Amino acid sequence: MDDEERNDVDWTPVGEFTDIAYEHNDGIAKITICRPDVRNAFRPQTLVEISRALEYAREDPSIGVIILTGQGTKAFCSGGDQRVRGDTGYLTEPGTSGAVGRFHVTDLQVQIRRLPKPVVAMVAGYAIGGGHVLHLICDLTIAADNARFGQTGPRVGSFDGGFGAGLLAQLVGSKKAKEVWFLCRQYDATQALEMGLVNTVVPLADLEAETVAWCREMLELSPFALRASKASVHAAEDGLAGIQQLAHDANLLFYGTAEAREGREAFKEKRRPEFERFPRRA
Ligand code: S0N
Questions:
Q1: How far apart are CA 253 and CA 13, in angstroms?
Q2: Check whether domain 12-219 has CATH 3.30.300.30, yes or no
Q3: pTM of the full predicted structure?
């Protein structure tokens, strides 16, 4: 199967990007890292564009689920582009996005984690280094049978002590997570499934069809219940930030009640709110 044959859906491209493609079809947004010559390694521009695309998908009420993937069949993502790694983070030319050295991926990881719609990693080929952390952060991972997973930090003089270590340890256990980081081995799709790193493994030829089928299954379900389920899983893991997400979601719903509306209307009408009309629930 060549790279072009993965398209099973009639995707509509949206927006102007250089490093990624943003497409959608019938409630599903697909964000593709388009740097196959470097196994879809990300430079700052790539991460800035993914972030913009995620914001599009978040703000578009017709979108219910987001797929993150890499162009071609050889790699999902091989992490930070080592050619633009400087002494203060990742750099590009002055005047462009990412000209100030930093880890743009820090904010992107949190953005995916907080995004109130499910994000599905569709992995063919390598998910390595920072690319492996990206799939970890996604809510679900559908892997092709040619997928390979691993961290390379200690080999290239780097480490990811946030989700890259902590979330990995939660998923596969502390000993296995240390093995992944200490030995920098690669794990095939079957091993990844056994470890609990991915949700399912499918033949490469079926990857997009199967991922889209999972997305369509989610699109049949209550969007707010999906949103609250994501926030609920993260609530304990993410401490106050996790509780904040869940609590603000509860507040979103509360805004729609007569009781909350009474507070708002009383303020606007400069009168005392009549909260005694509302039950003090047991
Ligand atoms: C992915 C691998 C295993 C694929 O091997 P394969 O198929 O044999 O292909 P290659 O011939 O090796 O590669 C093809 C071409 O692609 C280039 N390339 C591949 N990966 C990268 C990359 N990450 N950056 C730049 N170029 C890359 C190759 O050089 C080759 O080019 P040509 O054809 O010109 O020779 C294999 O390629 C591999 O192991 N790649 C490196 C994986 C890696 O080490 N990634 C970086 C790991 N670190 C991070 O991702 C850090 C991320 C980060 O931002 C961060 C976050 C939190 C805290 C810290 C950091 C931090 O930066 O430190």
A1: 33
A2: no
A3: 0.94
